Amino acid sequence: MNHKALIYTLGVGLMINSAAYARKKDNRNAEPVPVEAAGEADPPKPVTPPPPISGGRYTPPKLPAGISFAGEQTPLSRWDVKERLDRELLFNTYMHGSTLYILKLAHRTFPTIERILREQGVPEDFKFLAVAESALYNQISKAGATGYWQFMKAAGIQFGLEITDEVDMRYDLEASTIAACKYLKQAYAKFGNWTAAAASYNMGMGGYSNYSAQQYENNYYNLLLPEETNRYVYRILALKTIISNPEKHGFYLDKSDVYQPIEGKNIQVSSSIGDLAAWAKQNNSTYQQVKMANQWLRGKSLTVKPGKVYTILIPKV
Description:
Blueprint: H1 3-23, E1 68-69, E2 72-73, H2 79-93, H3 96-120, H4 127-134, H5 153-158, H6 173-191, H7 194-203, H8 205-215, H9 227-244, E3 264-269, H10 276-282, H11 287-293, E4 310-315
Antiparallel strand pairs: 1-2, 3-4
Helix pairs in contact: 2-9, 3-6, 4-9, 6-7, 7-8, 7-9, 10-11
């Protein structure tokens, strides 16, 4: 047997012996697994394991003593309300990657959302509804709901968003937030409270009205709704709890960790652009950068109707 073959054989033997030994251990009381070295009479000294992460155990997050949504108190004294909130808080606390990504994106998106909510007279807590809808990034649901606020095409157009083959303002944070505010104010006028308005954002005003009429009840916490809507407001409340105090729930981010607003130069466009890639080059940018910073641009060109002006951000690289 040559030298390389001998080393390979010894290596395989060591792995088999180690695996067999490890299988005999009770995982609940795991100890360092000794590895027997070939040709040694005395067993090696045990290897000291690294310290366990976060105490080596998972604990359920503590519910807040009280919580409200848009100034409307949540009845946490009720067992069903408490358990529903507990479920969503538990799930979202331990979705580590997703929650960390939301916290990173919130630093970029929340200032714009908060400003528009204030300007539109909608409570600031609705920024957490945007988190529940899209996790603060542009995505498309299986049903076709699109963008930060997850508008279906017909609803987006109804609330003032331009949606064509070349332009889809559901992907624009400012425009879609304004459209969401229009919906929410209309829903508030219909139902008389912001919690019901939030729930209706998930199932539609017509859907909420139907369930409310069938059950002779308008209070969200007293209604039996489809499962997704049953969980919806509680998920918003859970996200509010975590994002408002991330360190309490084990999420620590430095200033260098979060995503900053995209800086650059805004260009007013009042005439059609036949080739966005060429236009980007003319403005010392690239097609990729222009499309990433202006996701509402959906085509390779931009048709501008008379009197219309678009603002395109040329990002600073």
